[in-house]
Amino acid sequence: MKRLGKALNEEETDIDITPMLDVVFIMLIFFIVTASFVKESGIGLNNPPANPDPPDIDAPKPIVVVVNDLNEIRIQDRIVDARAVKPTITRLKAESPESSVVVKVDPKAKTRAVVQAVDGIRAAKVLLPSVTLNPG
Fold it and tell me: Which of 40, 75, 108, 117 is the most core-located residue (most Cβ within 10 A)?
């Protein structure tokens, strides 16, 4: 008498996936070990050397650009949009051509905000010798 479904003498066949899991695990270990880790490039921050001599009283005050930990770009204590860095620096340099531009960067600031600020300054045709990391 036949039953619905499997016959009594028929063996149940299962697929053993343990060897397949072993191979996948070994491949995973191989790719992790042989993967080359890419070192991200960054902007070189150069701290200026300490100068014991105070600046002259008659010396023009520098144009200070600050990138804070909130990724805000501040020029002369005013928040400026990244697209407005170039016209603002151009205007300030026209008012005081002898002024230098100093960039102070908070260590928690994102690289994107720093690059936008520096690109805007360079687009204004101002030579920027270094970017200062502001530890405070």
Answer: 117
